[in-house]
Amino acid sequence: MKAKASAKVIPQYVLEVLLRLATAGFQGYLVGGGPRDLLLGRAPQDWDVATDARPEQVEAIFPVTYPTGKRYGTITVRLGEAQVEVTTFRGEGPYSDGRRPDWVRFSATLEEDLARRDFTINAIAYDPLGEVWVDPFHGRWDLRRRLVRAIGEPRERFREDGLRMLRYFRFQSTLGFKGERRTMQGIVPEWLVGVARERIREELDRLLLGLAPGRALHGMTASGLLQVILPEVAALRGLAQGSNHRFDVFGHTVAAVEAIAPDLVLRWAALLHDIGKAQTKTADERGIHFYGHEVCGAALARAVLQRLACPRERTDRVECLVRHHMFYAGPELTDAALRRLAARVGSDNLLALLELRRADIVASTHRYDLAWADFYRFKERVAALLAGEQVFSRKDLAINGNDLKAVFGWPPGPKYREALDQLFHWVLEDPARNRRETLLAYLHSLYDQGDEQYGKNHNGENN
Predict the structure, then answer these.
(1) Measured distance CA(149)–CA(121) in Å, rounded
(2) From CA 356, how far away is CA 21, in angstroms rounded?
(3) Could you tell me if residue 243 is inside a domain?
(4) Which of 317, 321, 342, 450 could form a disulfide with 269 if both were Cys (CB 3.0 to 4.6 A apart)?
């Protein structure tokens, strides 16, 4: 690991902020994730600046500023289209609400400011103008050791902000690091209870998209943290599946999360796809069974994601994937049945279901040869389906309600939906039927008799 970061990596607008602070006689350092990622050779996502200038002094130096967190010493500086958060060196009081300090004291020293942070790897400061590193807690050494370690007493850090316990595991996932044992021993899961659910979900999102989500999930279970956040997933630990599986249900779930593509919908679906098994397990002389676990799991998945204030679209898609992940993919599946599956889940979810099935295979069975053979045959059929004529919803039909009104004279009403439903299911049997003339002829064969009386009744006549 290089102890010297190239200024070429740092955007010009960030260097301009530091230069203006220095010209005005103040110190300026990059802090937080920026120095950490520079040392790791990663492209930093955020550029935060710490300074000994007071908030009002920062406002005087830069012509365009916003007091986004002035009470806590943070001023957002705008240069052109770019923005940088500039925060005054500070010390902090206790965190009574488990999120923000009760009071802050502006400090003259960078070292005191770094001491209030969570982990040593996030308490490194860098001055690219003078090429000076400040690392009072040996964060660079921990980066070399690939270790996540709390600053000072872990319990004090976690008591200040319970979310830091989850961040401890999130950094293990996103960086592929191990966690220091002493830091893990400082975790008290109950301290997470009062943390806002949106903050918890945001950390879980980052954790699931990381390089090593399995390491984090196993660690969260061992610490008791998963039982507080996701008890439905924690309940899978130790739940046996039978001799044809390599893992218990929790181990299988973790393996599926790591095997699936790094997409939020897919990783949440992998994490939750088997949570119904804890409630549906039965056993008899033929073995262990989980009948209907996908239906139970879909309802549980929706409840979990709603509890975490997950966006509705993602919640809907994950529920759909969990509900249908046991789809039959054998050679006996007819083309019409495949089209019906595509219609139920939608084309995007059909591709996602394929990816979930692939990860499920990787994470479960010893008989890869048979499972892979069925999977790839089914995948080829799906590719052919998507490349051909697509009728996945009533909107894809060659006619609509306006045609029904124009041709049959029907007023808007339940007959519209009834007719379109019949057409949709008829076309699923053979997509070549999706031609306007063909559909209208089919409707004439179904509805020509009695339509005159239907129209009169629904226009209010003869009533």
Answers:
(1) 8
(2) 51
(3) no
(4) 321
Percent of residues, the chain, with pLDDT higher than 70: 89
- Strand ranges (E), 242-298: 282-284, 287-289
The single-letter DSSP state of residue 112 is: H
Residue pair 296/279 in contact by the 8 Å Cβ criterion: yes
User: Which domain range does residue 208 map to?
Assistant: 146-229
Q: How confident is the model at residue 381 (pLDDT cuts 50, 70, 90)?
A: confident
Residue 370 pLDDT: 56
Amino acid at 73: G
Answer yes or no: do 124 and 34 share one domain: yes
> How many CB atoms are closer than 10 A to CB 52?
19
pLDDT in tens, 194-243: 899 999 999 999 999 999 999 999 999 999 999 999 999 999 999 998 77
Instruction: Report the CATH number at residue 33.
Output: 3.30.460.10
Q: How many distinct structural domains can be found in the chain?
A: 4
Q: Are 294 and 322 in contact (CB under 8 A)?
A: yes
* 294 and 382, same domain (yes or no): yes
pLDDT band of 7, cuts 50, 70, 90? low
**Chain segment 98-150, per-residue pLDDT in tens:** 556 565 678 779 999 999 899 999 999 999 999 999 999 999 999 999 999 99
242 domain-assigned: no
Instruction: Give the C-alpha distances (Å, rounded to integers) separating 48 from 22, 133, 154.
Output: 16, 15, 24
Q: Which residue has the tokens 């109950």?
A: 190
**What tokens were used for 10?**
């740092």
Q: Is the pLDDT of residue 93 over 70?
A: no
3-state secondary structure of 63: coil
Alpha helices per DSSP H over 118-224: 139-145, 154-160, 163-175, 181-185, 197-208, 213-223
The three-class DSSP label of residue 41 is coil
DSSP β-bridge partners for residue 74:
69, 87
> Do 274 and 253 contact (CB within 8 A), yes or no?
yes
Alpha-carbon distance of 311 to 457, in angstroms, equals 44
Whether pLDDT at 56 is above 80: yes
Please state, rounded to an integer, the average pLDDT across all residues of the chain.
87
Q: Which amino acid is at 291?
A: Y
Can you spell out the DSSP letters for 338-373? Answer: HHHHHHHH-HHHHHHHHHHHHHHHHHHBS-HHHHHH
- Report how far residue 440's alpha carbon sits from residue 457's, in angstroms, rounded to the nearest whole number: 23
- Rounded CA-CA distance 272/236 in Å is 10
pTM recorded for the entire structure: 0.83
In this structure, are 214 and 310 located in the same domain? Answer: no
Residue 139 domain flag: yes
Q: How far apart are CA 427 and CA 293, in angstroms?
A: 31
How far is C-alpha 25 from the geometric centre of its chain's CA atoms?
44
**Residue 245 lies inside a defined structural domain of this protein:** no
Are 380 and 412 part of one and the same domain?
no
